[in-house]
User: Which sequence fits this backbone?
């Protein structure tokens, strides 16, 4: 077992994911974990199946962090970790923490480094053990950096095993102690050989067993669906009712489909008091669902979205879905607001209000007091984040989901997807018979087009962005790029540019097109190729011709980091 200590990086859970991918079991714990308390299996974080494979820690990985090691409130590791005799790998902040504690020097860089960098590997002929980290790799490799500090002096006993143009201590190692430190992030997919580096560490250096299985389809087919349906039935019981928000996205749809399979089609059951014997009796009455899906139209959805989600989930999948048109309320509250975080908060809070009112109506219809459960499509990365040492990692954006609902509504949570990663949810969707179109749908953020209309969100601005986006996605699908691109959308910029149409001068707005490739949405690269550029030209011309108010289209070529996928 590999112990990963989380210092709050955006990417900590990806380390877990990558290592489990090649069959090594690992656990992620907050960096404040006291090492002396780890004689016992930590409770409540992973399921029993996982604990069966636990045989003691063979190595420790220290994650990255948004902090600087010299910040007064920065998190620090229990230094006992360095006395266990097991290999330790520090990643980014983890390297800086090791260097700082062992007598090296860490300083703010003159040039903060985000994105791709070429890492030059230095092999040591006389010290084969420290070469193991880059075993199978030679010369320069592409790595992903995201740091503001760097090591400027290695601690005694450490040797340099790789450098970049700006980082002379990009990777270091201590031969006798088996300590390694790397400045780049091997866990993100944009470090092309990141998997090899992590594998070299846990398998080559730490000799961890590769017997942990996480073969997606097998795991899902053999155990997941049936077990989960049974679990839901047991939790909800014969009379329980469940509400859940759906958006048409893959997570909420898969969760809703599972719930529908479990309790969507059963007889309504009532508890009656028997006059003769005094016992409670369960009476089955007419067929009725116990699952109520709610789709809130917030006025900032994509073109025809509500109708098509209703058709897909309701008519095609048979899910009991209620569409609430609250667009006027949302757009009214967004009037005059330009700050991205305020937009997100307004949409999040209004969503809760509308959802609760609808749930109360449904509760009344079903007799009152019967709705006890709330379905949520929480995924495994969210679960890991909530065990971090200071809650979730640094807030970059307040992601809107239904997380705020629980406290106010006093509903108990059911989260059938909480052990799964996104690609596993997609595999599950396919196994449950969902259409490919739904399973492979690009993600769409809760605050919708409101965060894709930069500046004030007015109905007419939403209309422009919506139409441009529709044309963009339609052309992407027509050209066969939809599955290759991880996420694409059109954003409307709050600037005007001069153009010429017919013989007249125009002064109109600009549409920015975004298309990224990513595996996990934590890091992303622009989607680019010469052929794609030709498609973009066609799309640009269609948008300018068909969308009134737009005379210019630009393509966003930034990577994440330093940009994010959404503009706001
Ligand atoms: P960023 O812009 O943070 O986006 O790079 C990463 C992924 O998250 C999506 N996103 C959201 N999803 N509610 C959501 O459900 C939100 O508030 C939200 N904000 C961003 C974004 O579309 C991308 O897939």
Assistant:
């Amino acid at each position: 077992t590999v112990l990963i200590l989380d210092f709050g990086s955006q990417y900590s859970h990806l380390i877990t994911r990558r290592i489990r991918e090649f069959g090594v079991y690992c656990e992620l714990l907050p960096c404040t974990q006291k090492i002396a308390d780890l004689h016992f299996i930590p409770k409540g974080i992973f399921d029993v199946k996982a604990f069966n494979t636990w045989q003691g820690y063979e190595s420790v990985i220290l994650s990255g962090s948004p902090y600087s090691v010299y910040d007064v409130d920065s998190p620090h590791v229990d230094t006992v970790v360095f006395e266990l005799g097991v290999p330790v790998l520090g990643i980014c902040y983890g390297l800086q923490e090791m260097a700082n504690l062992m007598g090296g020097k860490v300083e703010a860089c003159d040039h903060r480094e985000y994105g791709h960098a070429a890492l030059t590997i230095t092999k040591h002929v006389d010290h084969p053990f420290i070469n193991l980290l880059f075993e199978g790799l030679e010369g320069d490799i592409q790595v992903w950096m995201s740091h503001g500090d760097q090591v400027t002096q290695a601690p005694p006993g450490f040797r340099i095993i790789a450098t970049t143009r700006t980082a002379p201590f990009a990777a270091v190692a201590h031969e006798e102690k088996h300590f390694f430190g790397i400045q780049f992030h091997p866990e993100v997919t944009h470090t092309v050989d990141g998997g090899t580096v992590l594998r070299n560490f846990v398998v080559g250096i730490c000799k961890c067993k590769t017997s942990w299985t996480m073969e997606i389809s097998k795991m899902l087919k053999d155990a997941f669906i049936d077990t989960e349906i049974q679990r839901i039935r047991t939790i909800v019981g014969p009379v329980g009712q469940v509400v859940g928000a759906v958006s048409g996205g893959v997570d909420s749809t898969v969760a809703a489909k599972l719930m529908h399979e479990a309790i969507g089609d059963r007889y309504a059951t009532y508890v009656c008091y028997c006059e003769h014997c005094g016992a409670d009796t369960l009476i089955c009455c007419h067929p009725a669902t116990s699952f109520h899906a709610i789709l809130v139209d917030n006025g900032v959805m994509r073109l025809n979205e509500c109708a098509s989600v209703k058709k897909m989930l309701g008519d095609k999948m048979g899910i009991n879905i209620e569409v609430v048109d609250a667009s006027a309320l949302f757009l009214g509250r967004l009037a005059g607001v330009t700050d991205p975080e305020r937009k997100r908060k307004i949409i999040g809070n209004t969503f809760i209000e509308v959802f609760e009112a609808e749930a109360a109506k449904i509760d009344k219809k079903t007799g009152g007091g019967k709705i006890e459960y709330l379905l949520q499509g929480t995924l495994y990365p969210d679960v890991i984040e909530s065990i971090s040492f200071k809650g979730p990692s640094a807030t970059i954006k307040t992601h809107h989901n239904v997380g705020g609902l629980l406290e106010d509504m006093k509903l108990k949570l059911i989260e059938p997807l909480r052990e799964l990663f996104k690609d596993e949810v997609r595999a599950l969707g396919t196994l449950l018979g969902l259409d490919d179109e739904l399973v492979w749908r690009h993600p769409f953020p809760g605050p919708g087009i409101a965060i894709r209309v930069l500046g004030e969100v007015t109905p007419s601005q939403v209309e422009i962005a919506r139409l441009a986006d529709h044309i963009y996605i339609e052309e992407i699908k027509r050209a066969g790029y939809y599955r290759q691109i991880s996420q694409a959308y059109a954003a409307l910029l709050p600037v005007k540019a001069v153009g010429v149409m017919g013989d007249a001068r125009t002064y109109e707005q600009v549409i920015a097109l975004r298309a990224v490739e990513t595996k996990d949405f934590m890091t992303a690269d622009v989607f680019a190729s010469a052929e794609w550029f030709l498609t973009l030209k066609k799309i640009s011309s269609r948008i300018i011709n068909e969308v009134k108010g737009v005379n210019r289209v630009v393509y966003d070529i930034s990577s994440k980091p330093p940009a994010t996928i959404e503009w706001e």
User: Anything to note?
Assistant: Residues 344, 396-397, 399-401, 443, 445-447, 487, 521, 560, 564-566 surround xanthosine-5'-monophosphate (CB under 6 Å). The CA atoms of residues 487 and 516 lie 6 Å apart.
